[in-house]
């Protein structure tokens, strides 16, 4: 097997192209969505949604970075980037409502989120374990070690697959509640949908990349180069 194998890039081309397109779409949708006004700031919208669901204990904090927004299930805190936290645009409230959707999932023990949280260690350490086992397996010409490494990498693939329904559900919750509470008007609802749908494609691209990477190494281990 080769450390620099042109076949690897052949396998990954679809994921690279999809990720490039998704990132361009996110950048465009976000820029347009920031120009569409909303009734509340991102922080105020998230607070309204959380309080309405009885989640007054979930905190909201401003954090550094752009599109660094996330929900921390351990601390029960929404961390919103400055533009989202302070901005009163469709993009800001859409992203904030999406993160609030994760808090609602957490509070209601949404099954895919529970499974995803359990799979976090596998996603964090699986790729590192894979690389160590794969390289040692190559050096020792141990088929078993390479297969064990591939199983470890499968933890990341599993996490990515489970993550898709979690993210899509949070976006669907955000779209519905922002319209229901009239935080955005018709134009704002379209902008929110465009931003969240574009972000959803980045998760699809990331999942495809992990699946195709797994497929490449599986092909090399089982099919191509056993010598």
TrEMBL record:
This is Neutral zinc metallopeptidase. The keyword Transmembrane applies. It holds the Pfam family Zn_peptidase_2. Keywords: Membrane, Transmembrane, Transmembrane helix. It comes from the Bacteria. The keyword rRNA-binding does not apply. InterPro entries: Zn_peptidase_2. The chain crosses the membrane at residues 6-24, 132-159, 200-219.
């Amino acid at each position: 097997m080769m450390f620099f194998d042109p076949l690897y890039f052949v396998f990954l081309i679809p994921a690279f192209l999809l990720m490039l397109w998704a990132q361009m779409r996110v950048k465009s949708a976000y820029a347009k969505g920031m120009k569409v006004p909303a009734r509340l700031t991102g922080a105020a919208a998230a607070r309204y949604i959380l309080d309405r669901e009885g989640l007054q204990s979930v905190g909201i904090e401003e954090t550094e970075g752009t599109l660094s927004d996330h929900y921390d299930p351990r601390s029960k805190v929404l961390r919103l980037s400055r533009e989202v936290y302070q901005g009163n645009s469709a993009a800001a409230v859409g992203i904030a409502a999406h993160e609030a959707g994760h808090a609602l999932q957490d509070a209601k023990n949404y099954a895919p989120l529970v499974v995803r949280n359990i799979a976090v260690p596998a996603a964090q350490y699986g790729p590192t374990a894979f690389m160590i086992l794969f390289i040692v397996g190559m050096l020792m010409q141990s088929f078993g070690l390479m297969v064990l490494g591939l199983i470890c990498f499968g933890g990341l693939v599993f996490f990515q697959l489970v993550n898709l329904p979690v993210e899509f559900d949070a976006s669907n919750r955000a779209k519905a509640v922002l319209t229901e509470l009239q935080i955005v008007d018709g134009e704002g609802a379209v902008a929110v949908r465009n931003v969240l749908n574009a972000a959803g494609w980045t998760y699809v691209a990331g999942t495809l990349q992990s699946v195709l990477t797994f497929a490449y190494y599986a092909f090399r281990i089982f099919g191509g180069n056993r010598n």
